[in-house]
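Dear colleagues,

As part of the handover before I leave the project, I'm documenting each prediction I ran so the next person doesn't have to rerun anything. This entry is a single chain, and its sequence is reproduced below.
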Amino acid sequence: MRKVNIGVEGWGEGAQGDFVGGCHRLKDKAALVAVCDRVEERASAAQQRFGARTYYTDIERFLRESNAEIVINLTPHKAHVPVSMAALEAGRHVYTEKPMAQSVDDATQLIEAARAHHVKLACAPVTLLLPTAQRWQHLLRQGVIGGVTFARAQLLAPPIWDDFPLDHVWYY
């Protein structure tokens, strides 16, 4: 199986902790080929720490020169839309941290850009991609459970930190 090339934009505390710390679980499926952060010290440190091939401090150069097929957007909230839009328009798939956008109009523009460039756009959390949520969506589209006027859901799942015990029955 061919590995997919991943590039990560935004290397603040969230990226270096919870999110990218778990990327080792994807080592057989994905390769971290590029990192980008406007602060060169963070970009350079992330490249060394996580073994990326190269680092960038400029999003345009990152998108122009790297061979990242998927861009993971871990920038601050206000930067989610411009970074995701630039990646989509460059023909890259995008996985962005929440919120995808700060307005419905901006979110709609991102969705339309993904469609226009024939790439995927996903937003954390990926709860809606879980099999149970997919089944709910199917039932709703088929009209099986009627029209929804209110919904509330809760999810309890194991944390993603590295030293989480494998026997996690207690957590549920």
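Helices lie at 13-21, 40-50, 59-65, 80-89, 104-116, 131-142. Strands lie at 4-9, 30-36, 54-56, 70-73, 93-96, 121-123.

All the best with the project,
I.
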